[in-house]
Design goal:
It is built from 6 helices and 15 strands. The chain is α/β, with parallel strands linked by helices.
């Protein structure tokens, strides 16, 4: 387990405060044509935040950061698909914030064919990441235990979830009543299910899950009702 970066603060808001873990607040913004969830984790005391999956430049997220006078300490990515990184270049430039991703998805930042933006006729790219995240890394944040990185490959090779204790940011790994797509290059449904079972289903039932698209859920609900998780591997 590595501890990354100096301890700082955390979250912001668009749809109201969703959850608080220790000193953290979390707010969700549905951004871009695919309504990708961008999250802002804020430390209201230090007025600092972490930006997770900036899905479009500027917009409501930028206005929120300005209104709340928040300093973006870092940009964390759950994976490298274009709809989760489309705002990275803009926010990195505007906020001088370092970008962190799992190394297995690193090339997606600067290769449109890898991040799939070329599939829809776009050329989305940014500079390489400033740092890399591995399974078990802990990002000091706020006054609590920090944010733990859970490597959950399957949707992409470098997909990760961010465990903040009371809640987890699941990217496109787990959704309410569903799981991430596994029909993309480099995807694997078997590996995705294994990641969910070993990385997320070990969490307590009450842990809130904030996915990359759609509404929040919780671990207990998915354990009982998610049809993809009801059949155990043979």
């Amino acid at each position: 387990m590595r501890a990354l970066l100096p301890a700082v603060g955390t979250v912001g808001a668009g749809r109201g405060v969703l959850n608080t873990a220790a000193s953290l607040e979390i707010r969700r913004f549905a951004c871009g044509p695919l309504e990708t969830n961008t999250y802002v984790l804020t430390d209201p005391v230090r007025k600092t935040c972490v930006l997770v999956d900036p899905a479009e430049p500027g917009g409501t997220v930028e206005r929120f950061l300005d209104r709340e006078k928040l300093t973006v300490e870092r940009i964390l990515l759950t994976h490298g698909h274009f709809d989760h990184i489309a705002g990275v270049a803009d926010f990195r430039s505007r906020r001088s914030a370092p970008v962190w991703i799992h190394p297995a998805d690193a090339e997606m930042l600067f290769r449109p064919e890898a991040n799939l933006s070329l599939w829809i006729g776009l050329d989305i790219r940014t500079e390489p990441a400033d740092g890399f995240l591995e399974d078990g890394d802990v990002i000091p944040f706020g006054s609590g235990d920090g944010i733990r990185v859970i490597h959950t490959p399957g949707h992409t090779a470098g997909g990760v979830c961010y465990d903040a204790g009371a809640f987890v940011l699941a990217g496109d790994t787990l959704f309410r009543g569903s799981i991430g797509r596994s029909d993309f290059p480099g995807s694997s449904e078997a590996l995705l299910l294994q990641s969910i079972r070993s990385g997320l289903m070990v969490l307590q039932d009450g842990v809130r899950v904030y996915p990359g698209h759609g509404e929040p859920t919780d671990i207990g609900f998915e354990r009982k009702h998610n049809p993809f998780l009801s059949v155990r591997p043979g």
